[in-house]
Amino acid sequence: MGKEGKRNLTFVILIVLGILLLAFMDIIVLEKVYHPLAQIYNINWDTLNAVIFGIDLGILWWHVAFFTLAFSLFVLLGVAAKSWRLAVSGISLFILGWEDIFYYILQLRWLPSELPWLNNAPMGLSRYLTGTANVTCLGVLISAFIGVIIAGLVLFKYNPLRLFKKG
Prior knowledge:
The protein is mainly alpha-helical. Helices cover 63% and strands 6% of the residues. The chain has helices at residues 3-41, 61-81, 84-105, 126-130, 137-155, and strands at residues 49-52, 55-60.
């Protein structure tokens, strides 16, 4: 394996570890803090919706903070590695479902059949492919597969402009 191959393998490992870290943090916040407190104090999800200037964003404040944290993590990894490709690949995999898959795998569970809380996430677009009202397990898997393709193309330097070069 050449120098470029080792570098890309290192980037893949960093991205997977970053997503695993984010999934673990998500488990701690939601499963160990929010859900127990919600049961004790009868807190409804809707009370935690992010509302800015009277507009309900359709996501929880935790998701606003979590997305910011995830984007920051991958941007910092990219800056540290001097690679925008690492940052873009990590963000792509994060927003297209890998964190959600790892969230359940780390808990030794599989994705539920429907995940309506992801309808407003980027993978919510998978509803148009599956023809369902809510994000489904299949939708997350399709989205994650698309994420792997995008991240792979970015990380391994696919250049679509090469198709138009002469000679």
